[in-house]
């Protein structure tokens, strides 16, 4: 029995059989074949290459139509490599001379080429290593069976274990085939972690060597509450974790039973609790959990989870559906937060070395105006069906906000000329996610209609900690005095000018932070729908005076450890029976 520790990102405890995905390079079957099998193995290899070339051709044509011929060149290059006899012939020869199965021969040749390219000590050859790795995966995927086929063949839901998963992979697997998710990479607030929480299944990320310790079919326990995976548990461990899971679920059921109650503090202050969503269907979860509306609609997931870039009509129908389901309630729609994801980087001829500090979010939209205008047209058309606010992500300079508003105005004029009904005065706000925006919040407040503080990225950029890197996960904390000072400055700036300020980062749904956020002056929080009842329970248990005194105490501390300890102690005092688990996390 092995116990592996990672980062808990979605609660719950389950026991199930493991299914490993995306581990082709580390779990390649190797066997000696008989002379009679040589022709068959060589043909398997040829068929795999032909299938990979077909996939690349489709991808090249799609990319050329959507992003232009220049961007599509990378796939033409890949097609050419897979037709190069200097690559193919040695693999065929290895199958025959060493009597190796096709998978092993492919890996041997690609590994040798990769080592040769890296030995060149040249940036040009180093960049080609990524091309080789991509082709390696493609050909092996064809030989070993596509992951989609393996998932489709499942006769019962399994625990999905992988080095990493993309948001689209996680969303595509969903409830029907998964019991839980475990990945070796990732952090608390990465995109795929957000999808795990939205799906509502237990998940652990940053679980080092998970694919090494687990084999397909192994029984595992996934504890999404504490971030642990138990491999091949004994009877005692299985019984203990099942009991803990049942107790945790019972607590969630008790708290959720009060979801319909108003989020009002003991002294009568009404707090607005909103939900973060990725898809229109999640509106039902927001309302079911007692939410007041949607505080963050992450529209990029429409792009990240589809086979093709969604056109204007597809986006319009999605946004319209969301507005209609909310029936007049708050809806804040964030424009594309793309650029630091595999979907975008994979289409670049030369992927960025550090995409989180590169052409992402509003910068990406401003550089790709046809795509941006298409989205704005869809948003504005949907605004005719109900209240819809527009929010620009990762704004770092006033010029970016002004450019985005200018493009929005141009699109509005185009729609007016076409006679299309839209909201003529849509509210436009920004996400405060970088220190420059937080420090200049007073200036931004003069030109924005509202603020939403995105603490996930604000923590990352303030502390210089990659929020998706499990190696520095212990350094990533919103309890940092520096981060809290920036949050406080944004709240004060918004209050000074009289614009609404909300917070939509992950800490909005963490009951440990609820009292502090209220004490700092926030009256609107947006979170994962499932966390709304928990936060509502805290809201209904406190008065604003208590929260303000706590915020003043925290403001005098100079270490995150002091802050976390005090916040957990105060939460535990409120209701030891129900909040003790969260306070001990």
Structural commentary:
With 585 residues, the protein is of the alpha/beta class. The chain folds into three domains: 2-23 and 163-252, Phosphohistidine domain (Glucose Oxidase, domain 1, 3-Layer(bba) Sandwich); 35-147, PtsI, HPr-binding domain (Enzyme I, Chain A, domain 2, Orthogonal Bundle); 258-583, Alpha-Beta Barrel (TIM Barrel). Strands 1-8-7-3-4-5-6-2 form an eight-stranded mixed beta sheet. It has an eight-stranded parallel beta sheet with strand order 15-14-13-12-11-10-9-16. Helix 11 (283-288) links the parallel strand 9 (272-277) and strand 10. Helix 13 (312-326) packs parallel to helix 16 (369-382). The radius of gyration is 26 Å and the shape is globular.
Structure summary:
The chain has 585 residues and is an alpha/beta fold. It has 3 domains: 2-23 and 163-252, Phosphohistidine domain (Glucose Oxidase, domain 1); 35-147, Enzyme I, Chain A, domain 2 (Orthogonal Bundle), CATH 1.10.274.10; 258-583, Phosphoenolpyruvate-binding domains (TIM Barrel, Alpha-Beta Barrel).
* Percent helix: 40-55%
Per CATH, the superfamily of the largest domain is Phosphoenolpyruvate-binding domains
According to DSSP, the number of beta strands is 16
Q: What fraction strand?
A: 5-15%
Distance between the termini: 24 Å
Integer average pLDDT: 87
The CATH class of the largest domain is: Alpha Beta
């Amino acid at each position: 029995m092995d116990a592996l520790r990672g980062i808990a990102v979605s609660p719950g405890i389950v026991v199930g059989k493991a299914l490993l995905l995306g581990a082709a390079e580390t779990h390649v079957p190797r066997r000696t074949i008989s002379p009679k099998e040589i022709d068959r193995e060589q043909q398997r290899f040829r068929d795999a290459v032909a299938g990979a070339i077909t996939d690349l051709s489709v991808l090249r044509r799609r990319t050329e139509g959507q992003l232009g011929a220049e961007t599509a060149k990378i796939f033409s290059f890949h097609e050419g490599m897979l037709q190069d006899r200097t690559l193919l012939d040695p693999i065929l020869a290895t199958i025959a001379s060493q009597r190796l199965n096709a998978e092993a021969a492919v890996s041997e040749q690609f590994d040798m080429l990769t080592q040769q390219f890296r030995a060149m000590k040249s940036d040009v050859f180093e960049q080609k290593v990524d091309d080789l790795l991509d082709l390696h995966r493609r050909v092996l995927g064809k030989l070993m069976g596509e992951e989609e086929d393996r998932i489709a063949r499942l006769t019962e839901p399994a625990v999905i274990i992988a080095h990493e998963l993309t948001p689209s992979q996680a969303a595509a697997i969903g409830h029907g085939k998964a019991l839980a998710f475990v990945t070796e990479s990732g952090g608390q607030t990465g995109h795929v972690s957000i999808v795990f929480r939205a799906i509502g299944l237990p998940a652990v990320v940053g679980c080092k060597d998970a694919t090494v310790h687990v084999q397909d079919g192994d029984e595992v326990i996934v504890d999404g509450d504490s971030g642990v995976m138990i491999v091949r548990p004994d009877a005692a461990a299985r019984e203990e974790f099942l009991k803990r899971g049942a107790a945790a679920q019972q607590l969630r059921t008790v708290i959720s039973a009060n979801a319909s109650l108003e989020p009002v503090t003991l002294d009568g202050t009404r707090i607005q609790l909103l939900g973060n969503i990725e898809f229109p269907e999640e509106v039902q979860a927001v309302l079911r959990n007692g939410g007041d509306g949607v505080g963050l609609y992450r529209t990029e997931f429409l792009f990240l989870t589809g086979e093709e870039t969604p056109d204007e009509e597809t986006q319009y129908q999605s946004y319209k559906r969301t507005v209609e389901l909310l029936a007049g309630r708050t809806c804040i729609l964030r424009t594309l937060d793309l650029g630091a994801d595999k979907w975008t980087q994979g289409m670049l001829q030369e992927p960025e070395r550090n995409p989180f500090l590169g052409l992402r979010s509003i910068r990406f939209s401003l550089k790709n105006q046809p795509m941006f205008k298409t989205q704005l047209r869809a948003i504005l058309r949907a605004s005719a069906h109900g209240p819809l606010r527009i929010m620009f992500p990762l704004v770092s300079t006033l010029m970016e906000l002004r450019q985005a508003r200018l493009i929005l105005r141009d699109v509005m004029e185009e729609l007016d000329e076409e006679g299309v009904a839209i909201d003529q005065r849509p509210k436009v706000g920004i996400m405060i996610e970088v220190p420059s925006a937080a420090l200049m919040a007073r200036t931004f407040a003069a030109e924005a209609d509202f603020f939403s503080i995105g603490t996930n990225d604000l923590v990352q950029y303030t502390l210089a900690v990659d929020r998706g890197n499990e190696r520095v996960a212990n350094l990533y904390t919103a309890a940092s005095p520096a981060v809290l000072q920036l949050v406080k400055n944004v709240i004060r700036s918004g209050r000074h000018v009289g614009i609404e300020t909300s917070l939509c980062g992950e800490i909005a749904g963490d009951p440990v932070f609820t009292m502090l956020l209220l004490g700092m002056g926030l009256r609107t929080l947006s979170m994962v729908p499932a966390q709304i009842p928990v936060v509502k329970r805290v809201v209904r248990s406190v008065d604003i005076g208590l929260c303000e005194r706590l915020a003043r105490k925290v403001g005098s501390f100079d270490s995150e450890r002091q802050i976390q300890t005090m916040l957990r102690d105060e939460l535990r005092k409120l209701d030891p029976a129900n909040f003790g688990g969260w306070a001990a996390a």
